[in-house]
Automatic annotation (TrEMBL):
InterPro entries the record matches: HTH_LacI, Lambda_DNA-bd_dom_sf, Peripla_BP/Lac1_sug-bd_dom, Peripla_BP_I
Pfam families (UniProt xref): LacI, Peripla_BP_1
Gene Ontology terms for molecular function: DNA-binding transcription factor activity; transcription cis-regulatory region binding
UniProt keyword annotations, A-Z: DNA-binding, Transcription, Transcription regulation
Domain HTH lacI-type: 3-59
Name under which the protein is recorded: LacI family transcriptional regulator
CDD domains, alphabetized: HTH_LacI, PBP1_LacI_sugar_binding-like
Entry keyword Secreted: no
Amino acid sequence: MAVTLSDVAREAGVSLATASRAINGSADRTVRTDLRERVLAAAERLRYSPDANAQAMARGRTIAIGLIVHEIADAYFSTIASGVTSAAERAGLVVTLASTDRDTARELTFVDLMQRQRARAIILVGGRFDDDTSNDRLAAALAEYRSRGGGVAVIGQPLLGVDTVTIQNRASTRDLAHQLHGLGYRRFAVLAGPENHLTARERVEGFRDALAELGAPVPRDLVIHGPFTRDGGYDGTAELASRGALEDVELVFAVNDVMAVGAMAAARAAGLSIPGDVAFAGFDDILTLRDITPSLTTIRLPLTDMGAMVTEMALSPAKDEPRIVPVDGEVILRDSTPRLR
């Protein structure tokens, strides 16, 4: 089995980043002489052969930023991508875009590909899944990439040991629940997205916990799991309609706007009026909501600004501890949730 840089770092008793700087060099950081000699001695003992690509990345990277998203057709991701490309252009860089279709194995593949292409930085956008094995593998791959001089930043949960822009999902949906309750709503259903998707889970938990505290708990059978897509929202609402559940529900909350749009279409297909028979709310405030009637109540995120922010983090010098930047959502009440008498 080939000796890796991690093996050398372990043998020398130093961090992976220190071993990389000692062997590959660095454009902006140096290694103490004694540590460098210790690393080089360990490399010689293990007969380690430096990676030419690693040395090139450490000393002179390309002008590309790798952007990895879950689904580029989703307006949430495309709006963030717009912010990334604008920030990259201001820095004189170009963006290479990859879409994983929410496949964690493809994330690893794209990280490896961008590392081999000597991308200046890698940005990942999308919530994590409840899968420690996949998250640990991705974290290790990003640590290896950073040890070779690349920058990394993420929009999602702070689980990968890198700079992260994290959305205050629970706090935002708690606020939404309180405001909807204040409008008179008491009977809710939730289109909850995938069970193992942490962003979806956080949004559902914040919403349900607040309503339970307010004395309007959401019954478990009215929490419908499905894909984080327009069709997921449509199918979940169609299921509720087929069970007759929508006759007793005053409002359906979908954990993202794309699902909410599909949900509203399904309600109309079932012969229901919006918001006369049932009200709807979503999360994200994607641009396509401008064309939805009635206008959708949602939680607004500064998506373009988030794209610029994560780009600046990925391109700035790394810190010893990952930087965590929280982003609050803002409840926007619109025509889909009128005040109940």
